[in-house]
Amino acid sequence: MHPFAATLLALTLLTGAGLLWFGNRLERAALLAIVIYLVATPFAAIIQFDSWRSGLLILEVILFLVFWAAAEASNRWWLTAAAGFQLISVISFAMPLLLSDMLVLTGILMRLGAWCLVVIAMGFGVFETRLHRRMAVPAQA
């Protein structure tokens, strides 16, 4: 595994642990979708037509829909940001259909960058959840 990929996976797991510990029900559901996404990615990568990875596209769309549904039902901004970043990843799958094979790497790098932004949003989500819990506790006099 490339050191960058290992670092990104470690940051994903670290922020995921923070969301598991401090998050509410919807944030934990989004975290479950992320874990399923990470586990299913190697299996979905097998399904492809020419250079178009349709198995990964299905996973990306499902993760986007989970983020979007959680953002609609919750008052957490990080879920909205994660859904937007995930939409960038979904749209990047159209690049092999529109461009030559030489620019497929651009789509892959776009998905990698979008995932970095999702992990950053998850980190801010841990902060937001902790702050929300701190503000929800009534002050004792």
Descriptive keywords:
141 residues; mainly alpha
Overview of this structure, please?
By secondary structure, this protein is an all-alpha fold. The protein has one domain (12-130). It is 79% helix and 0% strand. The protein contains six helices and no strands. The N and C termini lie far apart (54 Å).
What is the compact description of this entry?
By secondary structure, this protein is mostly helical.
Backbone structural class: mainly alpha
According to DSSP, the number of beta strands is 0
Overall mean pLDDT score?
Answer: 87
Secondary-structure element series: HHHHHH
Radius of gyration: 17 Å
Largest sheet: none
Quaternary status of these chains?
Answer: single chain
Spatial shape:
elongated
- Cα(first) to Cα(last) distance is 54 Å
Helix content: over 70%
Architecture blueprint of SSEs:
Blueprint: H1 3-22, H2 25-44, H3 54-73, H4 77-91, H5 95-98, H6 104-136
Helix pairs in contact: 1-6, 2-3, 3-4, 4-6
